[in-house]
């Protein structure tokens, strides 16, 4: 299918190109930027890597650019078919997922035991703090890019790209986890062991050798639903979230009821879980495709992904790619591996958003004095450093002495930020209360939770981060640099034409 060519936007790229869907794509759909038009251009771009990296690290996106100009890069607008009621039920669908139905039982058996309730309280408190941080950004910068856009505005392109990679990683791993969970509960519903529906391949490494074709099937089915219609997806989500809330569950997974001889309750819970997994996967795919669309608009990912289908008003290309990724990861990877990777990505993004909020409140380029800027940077480094140190000490320490150093440093750094540094910006509407205490506590809590994860998960995460860095240095950096410069030239030309037009004849 071919979508007719048009200009990328009056204030954006002045290059005409066609977007093709499916497998019929040209190089220009993925790499339209100047640096990739020839090998000579690419070699020249690589030679300017240092300069370009500095430019992207220091440059900040403007709020109006994220809210208005970025949308023009998709050629067509997404259809605004959801109202507040739909969004509430999408929220329910996103919440009732693998974390409630499977990971609770997994963690209780493997690590926490009866203390699983305390784990819920700690993680719930951390999540609540993160919600406050997100809310101020969501009100001021209401865009599909979410935390990626927030970080890009406050911390710059480079950290935004790192966040983007982890956002996508989070969504892919989360979607794959839910898809494999769907298989587990469907097997329970059919009175089978979950592995009865998986294919065991002993030649593959452990944790990757139970292939799950049902996870692939449900991911594709949900992906098709999300691609065709957002409103239709919302209706399904609403109805399904409503064969869920009437089910009484008093254990984290259905096999717990079987263990005490209550088989009939096991089947009720399994039905509720299968439906809940479906709604969770639907909300996940819709969210991740819109994130990917916004990242494509910045050219940090191929701009082909930013295309909005004219007929459905949905980001079809991004949805197809993300669904495919969910299928591949869910087909191979064990839930235990997926869960820890998901936690690392999520906690890192939450921390970056909290840091972005502190930057938003205490630093405004061109307005904050050099003295206040330097003091802010110093206190922020102490907050992050003491939080990371506390987390490391929690993971490896065997006494309380280290906390008498790290915790007071965090406390005094946060107090110093509150008392000594002048707040540079007030929120447009109702902002986050207790700044800087609340975002600083968010950072500390997230770092603390990271300290409870195993070393193997951090190694896998380091490998993924390395892949992201290589892609950015060789592709994403140059594509986004070219795109930003093209936009800047377009604005200058537009302003020049306006000046010329205003002159008397």
Automatic annotation (TrEMBL):
Please give the start and end residues of each transmembrane region.
Answer: 82-103, 115-137, 158-179, 267-287, 341-364, 376-394, 400-417, 429-449, 461-481
**Record's GO cellular component, any one?**
plasma membrane
Highest taxon, organism lineage: Eukaryota
Query: Which parts form a coiled-coil structure per UniProt?
Result: none
Note whether Cytoplasm occurs among the keywords: no
Name a GO molecular-function annotation: L-glutamate transmembrane transporter activity
A Pfam family it matches = AA_permease_2
Q: Where in the cell is it found?
A: Membrane
Bilayer topology annotation: Multi-pass membrane protein
Primary localisation category: membrane
Domain spans labelled Cationic amino acid transporter C-terminal: 432-480
Q: Which UniProt keywords apply?
A: Membrane, Transmembrane, Transmembrane helix
Q: Which family does it belong to?
A: Belongs to the amino acid-polyamine-organocation (APC) superfamily. Cationic amino acid transporter (CAT) (TC 2.A.3.3) family.
Q: What name does the UniProt record give this protein? A: Amino acid/polyamine transporter I
List the top taxonomic levels of the source.
Answer: Eukaryota, Viridiplantae, Streptophyta, Embryophyta, Tracheophyta
